């Protein structure tokens, strides 16, 4: 700004050589010098001003005598540029028309008038009329385009556009020609970007976005499809009148291909396409086949995958796994062909195979054989074929099994025959055992036979019978083929005699022994088969010795055969009597006859024994049966005598008692149990040996050789295999005969569980979620022992296990998630059979802290009103919804209707107060406020009741600083500035006076909107006095010469000092501020329990008080209020209710130190806190005598502490007593107060040695 002034009327007798220019901001109290150099002109350009601020100026002249008094201040001037109305908008043009609308656009005016364009106004008029209608909103448009709606079809219009700023509406710009409201047909067009005309390459797991601008009138319909008119399943398609877009998230190899876009309207149609190539790992190879299987290898072949992932296939990975395992093992990780032979396989095992293609982006999807493949081949031919029998229409054949079954079990044998004179072999029958009876043959015809073995891999080469067979009935005279004529057996052992014979037709057989027919008993049996005679003698004895004759007869004749059976046993006793032939003094000669039975062989010698008067029994080759109790009987003429002996035969234990039970059978284990042997062999069974073998093998495998109980759990068995187990008992003498079990197949009695059902994913935060699911419908027959939870990031391709330990609950908190990533989950149940199928994946859930719309603003209330406005304020919402508050929206409506109008901009307010303008005076309004954050607009909060725009009168009030109340002291020649804020409505008139008289001319009075200032420069003694400020408006007059005040702040912390059955003692801290007026007193209010009313019980002027006349046992609440001449403060309550009861507390000290040191000649003060109820009686003692108070030694018992003060030095003791118990007596552990200086101690007559507390 440029400031002009006139020269002073009087230059003081000296030329003026400088002017001082000063300015003051309306918002400040200080004058600031504007010129640093001397100014001699009567004008000066003031710079460095703030835009929008208001300033006043004053000038001081300077001559040789000094600086003059400043001129009166100028009015306030606002620092702002000069503003004009804006120019006309540029280039108004029509963009589009429909049958009911016209869309136009324009450019900003070249000249904005020096102020920002606030908006634009669009007007329309009919061609023949001069009346213009504003079609834009009342507050104008912010943009430079607009669509005029609700027009008549085929009607022509004139259109004007103008801009406006703070000065008003500027010049008008007209659309050059008349514009008709009509629909325009535009052929649909597709604007395909140049990049879309090429092949679009995109990495897997990324998001594909195809954005294609389109146009057409009317709006064309949009259709996206794949080749062969296949719909796009996973895509999010968005279409508007100007563009269409396709978004496919987490693309994979199956999203590659041609995407066809077709747009169509009544004017025509157009089609375009976009080729997309997803760079991903390849798909699964095709047509995996097994072309050859041997006993140790499998040959595979396959075709390349249909989708190579956008790049060339580098190689294939071949993997295998046994059917009993779950994990695959790599066979070849770098195969460049589409066939491979997997060798070094274990014969007889079942295998699965899979092939995976690999490109530069990694390993793709696998293709797996649908069924397991057994590594085996065709068996070898059967062994020798034997002709067993021929009849007139059948042949009986037998043969040996093949030497090798090809690694797979023989499932059948194929018998083929060929009649003489025919070159064709015909299949006659298929059997599962190595023998067969071929029937339906022609009598007298000659046939050849051959047999082939078959397993799951095929049929072996045939084995042919050695000679042709003529079909006819055979007649054979019975004939016996004796290999031996004599058969021997040890006594007690079993004898089986097999005698081959031939006879056709079947012969009749009869047996004789020593010329008499042989009878069958439980011990002697004979049987006859088609080609063999069998005689079985169990536990042979000497009665079985003799000649046996067999007679066979049929129609062709008869024959006889004789055999002899000898039982090898001890010879019978020699025959007596024993004859004594000669007796001498030292010898006896006697003789006897040979035994009748020589035991089946020649007697080698005789044993002659002698005995005197003793007897003896001898066991040779003892067996288990020899054990037991033996009794010796002695008899003579004098009587009888018996004695018993127990004989124990030490041997290996007997066979364990059966049966050998098998329980708890699963795919890998079972439990065996048995009973101990009835006979332990004379020694305790120390342990058992358990063995197993597969039924397809002959060798036994030891399971354990140190089982000490009658039960054992066998593990590590193969699923599907058939086993036999046996148990043998062991003692110190050997191993028992084995006890065999029945055959058992290892398989689970249950299956894996079903799939759980994911119910919900909740409690989502930025790094964790809670997954809940329902148990599977079936547990597979076994209890579910846990669940496996897996997650997958939308941007990844692998599932990751979430829990390291088994989860038995149906909820799990998944942690360590990446913020803003999306995850899906699946759950698998596990039982004893293994892991079941996983559940279907859940939906994707994003890991982020939950955000919601904010809550309602708090404490919405009206703070001011005028006749055309209402000012409101509010507090922030208690909950911001997890997102920062972006603004507030204020709405208003008249009390008699419900049409709410938004008063604030759509973007909201950043502050928490707002003044609503342009309201109708005395009209009642409803007002409400809501907060908004990034999520949206939150809950509404309304003011209580209604608000009415009306002028309010408010009495004048001023705020006098506490320093001003004390008075102002200033040195002569100094300046005084007294600034006093005030308020009042309407704005009060101010009046200053001094000592009830008018102010002198040197006093400068300033008045602002809410303050007044008294300024005195160059003070002298005449300026001393009492200055009075008077404020007055239409409401009330305020005159205050000394101070202005308000109600005091609440008192500080309220403390319970004492309580009895009828009274309570309280103390409190003074208020932090007395409100500008002295505290005149305090009120103690009381509220008995069970009532809602507070009553004043005590009034006091100090910071403590006693409330009496209480009811014993009653509970009370208390609060304290401070008051001054302006009124009462807010109450401060006691922290907790108090029950009126007498308290008994044993007296005690709270000693901080046990020893106190003081320098001789110095003062000592000791304060000792004391506790006791009733109030203890306190006594001080020194060296066992009562301490007397002097001018140097004083003590006081005030509040809850004891204070002793001693000038120079004091050592003493105190006793505290009450009605409960005496206080501490002098003794050990009492604090001591030694003098610091021994020399000083002697010089002081009243120096003591100790103080006992």
From TrEMBL:
PROSITE patterns: FN3, IG_LIKE. Keywords: Immunoglobulin domain, Repeat. Residues 1221-1241 are annotated as: Disordered. GO terms for biological process: cardiac muscle tissue development; sarcomere organization. Residues 176-277, 478-566, 956-1045 form the Ig-like domain. It comes from the Eukaryota. Pfam families: fn3, I-set. Residues 1-82, 88-183, 284-378, 381-474, 656-749, 755-850, 856-952, 1050-1143 form the Fibronectin type-III domain. GO terms for cellular component: M band. GO terms for molecular function: structural constituent of muscle. PANTHER family: MICROFIBRIL-ASSOCIATED GLYCOPROTEIN 3, TITIN. This is Titin. It comes from Paramormyrops kingsleyae.
């Amino acid at each position: 700004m440029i400031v002009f002034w006139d020269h002073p009327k009087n230059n003081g007798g000296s030329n003026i050589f400088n002017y001082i220019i000063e300015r003051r901001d309306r918002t400040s109290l200080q004058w600031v010098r504007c010129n640093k150099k001397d100014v001699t002109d009567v004008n000066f350009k003031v710079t460095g001003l703030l835009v929008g601020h208001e300033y006043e100026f004053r000038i001081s002249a300077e001559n040789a005598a000094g600086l003059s008094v400043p001129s009166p201040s100028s009015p306030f001037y606002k620092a702002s540029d000069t503003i004009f109305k804006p120019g006309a908008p540029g280039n108004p043009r029509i963009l589009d028309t429909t049958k009911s609308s016209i869309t136009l656009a324009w450019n900003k005016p070249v000249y904005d008038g020096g102020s920002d364009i606030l908006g634009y106004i669009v007007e329309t008029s009919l061609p023949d009329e001069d009346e213009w209608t504003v079609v834009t909103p009342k507050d104008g448009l912010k943009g430079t385009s607009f669509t005029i709606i609700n027009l008549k079809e085929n009607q022509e219009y004139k259109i004007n556009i103008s801009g406006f700023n703070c000065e008003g509406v500027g010049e008008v710009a007209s659309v050059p020609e008349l514009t008709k409201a009509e629909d325009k047909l535009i052929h649909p067009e597709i604007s395909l970007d140049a990049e879309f005309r090429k092949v679009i390459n995109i990495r897997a797991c990324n998001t594909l976005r195809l954005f294609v601008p389109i146009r057409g009138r009317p709006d064309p319909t949009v259709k996206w499809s794949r080749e062969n008119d296949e719909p796009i399943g996973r895509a999010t398609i968005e279409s508007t009148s100007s563009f269409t877009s396709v978004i496919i998230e987490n693309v994979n190899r199956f999203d590659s291909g041609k995407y066809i876009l077709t747009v169509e309207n009544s004017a025509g149609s157009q089609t375009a396409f976009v080729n997309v190539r997803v760079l991903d790992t390849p798909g699964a190879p095709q047509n995996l086949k097994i072309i050859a299987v041997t006993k140790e290898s499998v040959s595979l072949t396959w075709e390349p995958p249909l989708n190579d992932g956008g790049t060339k296939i580098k190689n294939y990975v071949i993997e295998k796994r046994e059917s009993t395992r779950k994990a695959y093992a790599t066979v070849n990780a770098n195969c460049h062909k589409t066939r491979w032979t997997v060798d070094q396989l274990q014969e007889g095992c079942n295998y699965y195979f899979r092939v995976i293609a690999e490109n530069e982006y990694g390993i793709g999807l696998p293709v797996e054989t649908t069924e397991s493949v057994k590594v085996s081949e065709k068996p070898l031919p059967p062994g020798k074929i034997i002709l067993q029998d021929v009849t007139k229409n059948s042949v009986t054949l037998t043969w040996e099994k093949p030497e090798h079954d090809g690694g797979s079990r023989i499932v059948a044998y194929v018998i083929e025959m060929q009649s003489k004179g025919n070159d064709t072999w015909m299949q006659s029958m298929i059997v599962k055992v190595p023998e067969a009876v071929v029937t339906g043959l022609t009598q007298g015809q000659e046939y050849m036979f051959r047999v082939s073995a078959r397993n799951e891999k095929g049929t072996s080469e045939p084995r042919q019978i050695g000679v042709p067979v003529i079909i006819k009935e055979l007649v054979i005279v019975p004939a016996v083929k004796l290999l031996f004529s004599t058969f021997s057996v040890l006594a007690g052992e079993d004898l089986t005699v097999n005698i081959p014979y031939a006879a056709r037709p079947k012969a009749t057989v009869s047996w004789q022994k020593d010329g008499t027919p042989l009878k069958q008993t439980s011990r002697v049996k004979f049987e006859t088969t088609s080609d063999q005679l069998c005689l079985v003698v169990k536990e042979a004895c000497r009665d079985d010795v003799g000649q046996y004759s067999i007679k066979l007869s049929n129609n062709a004749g008869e024959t006889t055969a004789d055999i002899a059976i000898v039982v090898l046993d001890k010879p019978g006793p020699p025959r007596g009597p024993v004859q004594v032939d000669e007796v001498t003094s030292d010898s006896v000669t006697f003789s006897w006859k040979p035994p009748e039975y020589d035991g089946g062989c020649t007697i080698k010698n005789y044993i002659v024994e002698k005995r005197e008067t003793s007897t003896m029994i001898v066991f040779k080759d003892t067996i288990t049966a020899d054990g037991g109790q033996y009794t010796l009987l002695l008899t003579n003429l004098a009587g009888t005598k018996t004695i018993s002996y127990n004989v124990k035969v030490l041997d290996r234990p007997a066979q364990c008692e059966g049966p050998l039970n098998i329980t708890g059978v699963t795919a890998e284990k079972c439990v065996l149990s048995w009973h101990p042997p009835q006979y332990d062999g004379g020694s305790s069974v120390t342990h058992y040996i358990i063995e197993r073998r597969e039924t397809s093998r002959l060798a036994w495998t030891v399971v354990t050789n140190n089982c000490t109980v009658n039960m054992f759990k066998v593990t590590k068995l193969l699923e599907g295999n058939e086993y036999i187990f046996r148990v043998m008992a062991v003692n110190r003498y050997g191993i028992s005969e084995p006890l065999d079990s029945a055959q058992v197949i290892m398989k689970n009695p249950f299956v894996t569980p079903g799939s759980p059902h994911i119910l919900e994913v909740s409690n989502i935060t930025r790094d964790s979620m809670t997954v809940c699911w329902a148990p599977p419908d079936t547990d597979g027959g076994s209890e579910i022992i846990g669940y496996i939870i897996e997650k997958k990031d939308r941007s990844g391709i692998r599932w990751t296990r979430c829990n390291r330990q088994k989860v038995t609950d149906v909820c799990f908190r998944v942690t360590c998630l990446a913020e803003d990533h999306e995850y899906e989950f699946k759950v698998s149940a596990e039982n004893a059979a293994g892991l079941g199928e996983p559940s279907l994946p859940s939906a994707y859930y994003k890991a982020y802290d939950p955000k919601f719309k904010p809550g309602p603003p708090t404490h919405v209330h009206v703070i001011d009103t005028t006749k055309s406005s209402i000012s409101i304020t509010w507090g922030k919402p208690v909950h911001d919804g997890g997102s920062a508050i972006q603004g507030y929206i204020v709405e208003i409506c008249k009390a008699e209707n419900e049409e709410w109008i938004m008063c604030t901009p759509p973007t909201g307010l950043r502050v928490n107060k707002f003044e609503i303008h342009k309201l109708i005076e005395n009209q009642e309004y409803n007002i409400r406020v809501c907060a908004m954050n990034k999520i949206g607009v939150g809950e509404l909060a309304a003011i209580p009741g209604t608000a009415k725009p009306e002028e309010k009168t408010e009495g004048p009030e001023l705020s006098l600083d506490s320093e001003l109340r004390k008075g102002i002291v200033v040195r002569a020649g100094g300046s005084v500035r007294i600034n006093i804020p005030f308020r009042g409505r309407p704005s009060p008139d101010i009046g200053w006076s001094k000592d009830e008289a008018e102010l002198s001319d040197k006093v400068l009075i300033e008045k602002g909107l809410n303050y007044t200032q008294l300024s005195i420069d160059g003070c002298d003694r005449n300026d001393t006095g009492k200055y009075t400020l008077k404020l007055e408006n239409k409401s009330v007059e305020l005159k205050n010469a000394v101070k202005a005040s308000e109600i005091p702040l609440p008192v500080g912390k309220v403390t319970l000092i004492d309580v009895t059955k009828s009274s309570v003692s309280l103390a409190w801290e003074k208020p932090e501020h007395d409100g500008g007026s002295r505290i005149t007193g305090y009120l103690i209010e009381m509220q008995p329990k069970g009532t809602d009313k507070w009553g004043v019980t005590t009034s006091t002027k100090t910071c403590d008080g006693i409330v009496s006349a209480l009811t014993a046992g009653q509970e009370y609440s208390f609060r304290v209020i401070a008051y001054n001449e302006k009124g009462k403060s807010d109450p401060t309550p006691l922290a907790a209710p108090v029950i009126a009861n007498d308290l008994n507390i044993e007296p005690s000290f709270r000693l901080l130190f046990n020893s106190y040191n003081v320098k001789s000649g110095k003062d000592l003060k000791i304060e000792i806190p004391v506790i006791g109820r009733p109030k203890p009686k306190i006594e001080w003692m020194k060296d066992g005598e009562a301490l007397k108070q002097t001018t140097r030694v004083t003590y006081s018992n005030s509040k809850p502490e004891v204070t002793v003060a001693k000038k120079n030095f004091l050592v003493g003791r105190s006793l505290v007593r009450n009605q409960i118990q005496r206080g501490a007596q002098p003794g050990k552990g009492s604090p001591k107060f030694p003098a610091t200086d021994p020399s000083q101690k002697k010089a002081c007559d009243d120096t003591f040695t100790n103080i006992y507390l």
